[in-house]
Specification:
640 residues, alpha/beta, Aconitase, domain 3, Aconitase, domain 4, seven-stranded mixed beta barrel, six-stranded mixed β-sheet, 19% strand, globular, binds alpha-methylisocitric acid, binds iron/sulfur cluster
Length: 640
């Protein structure tokens, strides 16, 4: 039987397990990446493992999230990460070099190789044919040390692309269409693979926009074939020698097939507050807007910027609108400066920001109260922009730029001819913001620079035999890690300080959560479907751990968050009958009796509601390996 692209990559990297959907498999990881907001923890964990040099083919640490530096914290973190990289054999991408996923695609991604990154949008590299996963920092630390990365063998979805995008319709509209059809839970437990004749009409940056937002489907990852288009992109990046062809076998078998005729698509928008609340732009046209933000790891390529510049050229941004532009990388920024597109953008009145995540993670540019913001980003969760009542719509760069001029949401198909822009035959190659590690013989002399905000990883004890505790919080469906552990300019500087950041845990849902946890000393969280979707931030597990949360019981979990809970030593359990969720109230006292024994022996698990005098059967998806991690109190206690 033939294989899919992902199955080929998995087979070539398989260290343990069988490639049967639902089974745990261990993969050899060729490359890792981190960004600064998750990186400090990942490197503290790597240090705790005592491994002198990274064992991967390539590991890169990017500084792209926390570059605001309103205090010493971020700058201290940058110096810490830089010194770690220098000593332990990683490349360091200095602040100003760009957003991790964009730079990785340009400079380091290799078709057929495996990559894990401590950021949920790591699958962006699937646009160049890499098998790339978002993971918690601890999993990345283990992979840097040469250990396997474990996932549940996913099922395979094929998105069959035919036709060609019409003028003014963009790659963003392709992934918004997939989100509209599949929803934010539709990709859970699956790898989304793109194929069909339509693939040849999409450039690598366009493919990367699509794989980037596969994260919003909840998919394990997304991947495109590596073909002649990939080859010319790599050639233009001076890396043709690293190109390999990669495609699915003709008789590959998929669990699900989705057909999309590109020529039937139209401009789309994801409405507040979920990436799958997708509507045609034409239905929303005329809506007044006050902000447009163009950039983020989804849409910040040179191609995107050139389209935007062509739309803005010779015009002025509407006085009611603030338009920000964040190029994805120094390469993009520099080329915009050289080819004049930057001048067109500046002349039109756009506010040009650094090439970082910026507004996407709430680091600046929060909209006005109840403001309508059009963003080319990938997430529009409530409050993520930093303004609690802002209305964020996710759109293509074309829609954002045309609307910024009009002051209202416009369907760009009403704006005349679409800009025709192309990618260059060769990109500007200048890796001077990548710092190489020190020679091995010098590493002992390298001092690690630590700031006072960097606090150790929270400790845990082995899982007790019985857990009796209160339900400190009950939440609904689709809780994001932005709810659990918010980001933004005020909270992000505390990413290296779990005691301090845990004061903000769940405050978007309930401001008294941290105080009530501390008072109770231990507790349960009850959640609905798709609990923990969104970011890979392990802080969404470490802060609850620090606050005494012992188990989270839900209707279902998002993949990366469930793995982070296990790594932290918090039990992720699910209701066998999802109606039992309704029977539990916040404040109820729950009990898990003989839980160690039940996990070790595979016996059924029952949750006792002492307050209501009821019992609910529970299930879990833990592998044997994960059970031993939970029993030990977390992954760090099992690494030799
Ligand atoms: C995000 O988009 O939410 C982030 C910030 O990039 C996160 C990582 C983090 O929380 O640091 C992600 O997507 O994993
Ligand atoms: Fe940065 Fe936003 Fe991309 Fe996350 S989604 S990596 S915050 S640009």
């Amino acid at each position: 039987m033939g294989q899919t692209i992902a199955q080929k990559c998995i087979a070539a990297h398989l260290l343990s397990g069988e490639m049967i959907p639902g089974n745990e498999i261990g993969l050899r990881i060729d490359q890792t990446l981190t960004q600064d907001a998750t990186g400090t923890m990942a490197y503290l964990e790597f240090e705790a493992m005592g491994i002198p040099r990274v064992k991967t083919e390539l590991s890169v640490a990017y500084i792209d999230h926390n570059t605001l530096q309103t205090g010493f914290e971020n700058a201290d973190d940058h110096r810490f990460i830089q010194s770690i990289c220098y000593k332990h054999g990683l490349r360091f991408s200095r602040p100003g070099n760009g957003i991790c996923h964009q730079v990785h695609l340009e400079r380091f991604g290799i078709p057929g190789k495996t990559l894990i990154g401590s950021d949920s949008h790591t699958p962006t590299a699937g646009g160049i044919g890499m098998l790339a996963f978002g993971a918690g920092g601890l999993d990345v630390a283990v992979a840097m040390g040469g250990g396997a990365y474990y996932i549940t063998m996913p099922r395979m979805v094929r998105v069959n692309l035919t036709g060609k995008l019409s003028p003014w319709v963009a790659a963003k509209d392709v992934i918004l269409e997939v989100l509209r059809r599949l929803s934010v839970k539709g990709g859970v437990g699956k790898i989304v693979e793109y194929g069909g004749p339509g693939v040849q009409t999409l450039s690598v940056p366009e493919r990367a926009t699509i794989t980037n937002m596969g994260a919003e489907l909840g998919a394990s990852t997304s991947i495109f074939p590596s073909d002649e288009i990939t080859r010319s992109f790599m050639k233009a990046q001076g890396r043709e020698d690293q190109w390999v062809a990669l495609s699915a076998d003709d008789d590959a078998v998929y669990d699900e097939v989705l057909d999309i005729d590109l020529s039937t698509l139209e401009p789309l928008a994801a409405c507040p507050h979920s990436p799958d609340a997708v509507k045609p732009v034409r239905e929303l046209a005329g809506m007044p807007i006050s902000q447009c933000c163009i950039g983020s790891c989804t849409n910040s390529s040179l191609l995107d910027m050139r389209k935007v510049a062509a739309i803005l050229k010779g015009k002025t941004v509407n006085p009611a609108v603030s338009l920000t532009i964040s190029p994805g990388s120094k390469q993009v920024f520099n080329m915009m400066a050289q080819d004049g597109t930057l001048a067109d953008i500046i002349a039109a009145g756009a506010r040009v920001l650094e090439c970082t995540c910026g507004p996407c993670i709430g680091v600046g540019q929060s909209p006005n109260s109840a403001g309508v913001s059009l963003r080319t980003f990938n997430r529009n969760f409530e409050g993520r922009s930093g303004t609690a009542d802002a209305q964020v719509y996710l759109v293509s760069p074309e829609v954002a730029a045309a609307s910024a001029l009009a002051g209202v949401l416009v369907d760009p198909r009403t704006c005349g001819d679409a800009p025709t822009v192309t990618l260059p035959d060769s990109f500007l190659l200048n890796d001077n913001l990548i710092v190489e590690p020190c020679p091995v013989e010098e590493m002992d002399q390298v001092e690690i620079l630590r700031g006072p905000n960097i606090k150790p990883f929270p400790s845990n004890t082995p899982l007790p035999e019985d857990i009796e505790a209160e339900v400190i919080l009950k939440v609904g469906d689709n809780i994001t890690t932005d709810h659990i552990m918010p980001a933004g300019a005020k909270i992000l500087p505390l990413r290296s300080n779990i005691p301090a950041i845990s004061e903000h845990c769940f405050v978007r849902c309930d401001t008294s959560f941290p105080a009530r946890c501390k008072k109770a000393g231990k507790g349960f969280i009850i959640g609905g479907e798709n609990y923990g979707q969104g970011s890979s931030r392990e802080h969404a597990a470490l802060a609850p751990l620090y606050l005494g949360i012992k188990a989270v019981v839900t209707k279902s979990f998002a993949r990366i968050h469930a793995a982070n809970l296990v790594n932290a030593g918090i039990l992720p359990l699910t209701f066998a009958n999802s109606d039992d969720y309704d029977r539990i109230e916040q404040g109820d006292i729950l009990r898990l009796s003989s839980i160690r024994n039940a996990l070790e022996t595979g016996q059924s698990i029952t949750l006792e509601n002492i307050t209501k005098k009821e019992r609910y059967p529970l299930t879990h998806a833990l592998s044997k390996r994960q059970i031993s991690i939970i029993l030990a109190g977390g992954l760090l206690y099992t690494v030799e």
